[in-house]
């Protein structure tokens, strides 16, 4: 983690150290979430981690998209295979404050010294066990060390302060009193409607307490990009179509690093059936504006260059089906859904082993 030494970062460190010191994770677990009104008036959802004794931290999920991440994260362990679990993580959107032991944290010497200086100036005694704060942001396939966006930093400070207020308010309460506040120990569901505490920092520096229902899981819809390349379409339609390909959009298990940011490129992974061998390996592509068009263009070029055009493409992934629908309609390739793209899973796990 690299921090720019600013007043905002100092406030972030103070809020993090105070949160760690209050040991909220000893009182509530990751099912007992709470909400906070953020600086722009939207709602952030907070999850305190550490009740199991392994991972100490606070996660902030912004709005409905962020809360989808919380709902998906509590189900991630139910994924049927490693690829499904990995791809679920590629949809996460969250701002995290985690805590590590001194021997395990990746904070450089300059920032360690700064954190210790802030703690000393504020009279905060750092916890010996997992007392070093570290921050990171998950934004889909893009992950950031530290919190580069000022709004995210401001809202994480607010979330950490709200967590300290929660710790103060619930101290000494019994189970029934916690439930009365909204801290029930059942997990939120995809249907939404779980009533949880909502905290709002007033202008006088005091906290107002209310309650709010959790939102339902957002229904994911994938759009179909138009494949607009007449010459390429003609070439593929003119080729002999034979055999079946199994295709799936997957992210590389190995990220690409750019400073404090790293991203996981996406590829339309393809294998031939029944051999389970890739006919070609299109390059991984950064998910940014126009990536769908680039993916289809590269896929089409690979088909032409290899001389291998399938009669049929199968996929078990809705996003892949949507991506390929117009392409297959125009190039004369049958597109169908299958229950399990087993060959794709095997190839991705082989890649994970080789790149890991």
Q: Which parts are unreliable, with pLDDT below 50 for 5 consecutive residues or more?
A: none
Estimated structural class: alpha+beta
Number of strands: 14
Spatial strand sequence of the major β-sheet: 8-7-1-2-3-4-5-6-11-10
- The rounded distance between the terminal residues' Cα atoms is 22 Å
Mean pLDDT: 91
State the share of residues found in helices, binned by percent: 25-40%
- The helix/strand series, from N terminus to C terminus, equals HEEEHHEHEEHHEEHEEEEHEHEH
Descriptive account of the structure:
This protein is an alpha+beta fold and 356 residues long. It contains ten helices and 14 strands. The protein starts with 6 loop residues before the first helix and ends with a helix. The mean pLDDT is 91.
Relevant terms:
356 residues; alpha+beta; ten-stranded mixed sheet; four-stranded mixed sheet; 23% strand
Write the layout of secondary structure elements.
Layout: H1 7-22, E1 34-37, E2 43-49, E3 56-62, H2 63-73, H3 82-89, E4 93-100, H4 109-122, E5 132-139, E6 142-145, H5 150-170, H6 175-181, E7 195-201, E8 207-213, H7 230-238, E9 244-251, E10 256-258, E11 261-263, E12 266-273, H8 291-306, E13 312-315, H9 318-331, E14 334-337, H10 342-355
Parallel strand pairs: 1-7, 9-13, 13-14
Antiparallel strand pairs: 1-2, 2-3, 3-4, 4-5, 5-6, 6-11, 7-8, 9-12, 10-11
Helix pairs in contact: 1-4, 1-5, 7-8
